[in-house]
Design brief:
Blueprint (H helix, E strand, L loop, with lengths): L1 E9 L5 E10 L4 E6 L5 H8 L7 E6 L2 E2 L5 H7 E4 L12 H11 L5 H14 L12 H13 L5 E5 L7 H16 L3 E5 L3 H7 L2 E6 L2 E7 H5 L2 H6 L6 H11 L15 H20 L1
Helix pairs in contact: 3-4, 3-5, 5-6
The protein binds adenosine-5'-triphosphate.
Length: 282
């Protein structure tokens, strides 16, 4: 569990980047942090993994303040994927990269080797390949694999899909989604509202170092006031369904007006056609 209790934070000890931020993330949640550039999302992630300590308030991981946890203790609880995988990858082969975290945590040995072998097979990696010769999407997958192979209960992902094409993005998010389905808590920063809508179950929106909304994904992404304050555009289907209701094309409570996904919209439209069809026949 992650708890932020009235957290303020600063990089230089003077200028407050986060102001009085409070929220709680339960075990197994999948939370997306959204908001404009400079809102404080990455700073929030750095506070979760202990790279930054609060200037006031407390960040607690499983009830223990990060200020009381050693870096190694935090690393075993929180896996962190940087925005750019090249800031993370440091070894000469894929295999060494996957083993690196075990060695850093003093867990090298036969069990680690077996977990790395399984990861290489699962991702279809070439264990002898040189990481920096891999394409951007595969490097991102490698960076992600090198974190999840350590099986941390929480993973923090700072813009995991930035710079990836559609296929690479889907591959990375499938891995993350599977991880969450198996019980890992996922906290991610994401600018792509389609990805947020497809995967996150909860959204925390930030503006100017403060939380402006915290709720179920589509409750937040359908709140016109929040969208305006956090300068967000909702996923396309949500935007379409909201517009159809605003323009009076459908009733605000109709399934079409409430559709959040392509599947949902298709079902709602099929129902609408069915209803109209029956009416026409009378
Ligand atoms: N290492 C740092 N030193 C000083 N100021 C920083 C540092 N990192 C970020 N900041 C400042 O903190 C503020 C919040 O930045 P942060 O990266 O947390 O925002 P963000 O919401 O993640 O933005 P983005 O979406 O652009 O990554 C910005 O004004 C930024 O300039």
């Amino acid at each position: 569990m992650i708890e932020f209790c009235q957290v303020s934070a600063s990089y230089d000890g003077e200028l407050a980047i986060l102001r009085d931020v409070s929220f709680m993330v339960s075990d197994g949640d999948f939370v997306a942090f959204v908001g404009t550039n400079g809102a404080g999302k990455s700073t929030t992630m750095r506070l979760i993994n202990g790279l930054l300590k609060p200037t006031s308030g407390e960040v607690l991981i499983d009830g223990v303040p990060t200020s009381q946890l050693k870096t190694s203790e935090l690393a075993s609880k929180v896996g962190f994927l940087f925005q750019n995988p090249d800031r993370q990858i440091c070894c000469k082969t894929v295999r060494e990269e996957l083993l690196f975290g075990f060695a850093a945590q003093g867990r090298a040995g036969a069990e680690a080797e077996a977990k790395v072998d399984a990861m290489i097979e699962r991702f279809g990696f070439d264990g002898d390949a040189e990481p920096f010769l891999l394409n951007r999407g595969t490097r991102q997958l490698l960076a992600l694999a090198s974190i999840i192979v350590l099986e941390p209960p929480i993973v923090v992902l700072d813009e995991p899909t930035t710079g990836l094409d559609f296929r690479e993005c889907a591959k990375v998010m499938e891995v993350v989604s599977d991880l969450n389905a198996r019980g890992t808590t996922v906290v991610m920063v994401c600018h792509d509202m389609e990805v947020v809508g497809d995967y996150a179950t909860r959204v925390i929106a930030m503006t100017a170092g403060q939380v402006v909304a915290d709720g179920a994904t589509f409750d937040v992404l359908r709140d016109a006031d929040v969208l305006s304050r956090a300068h967000l555009l909702p996923p396309q289907i949500v935007e379409l369904s909201m517009r159809l209701a605003q323009e009076g094309a459908v009733s605000p409570t109709s399934p079409v007006a409430c559709a959040n996904t392509l599947d949902g919209m298709e079902r709602a439209l099929a129902g609408e056609v069915g209803v109209r069809g029956k009416g026409d026949a009378k």
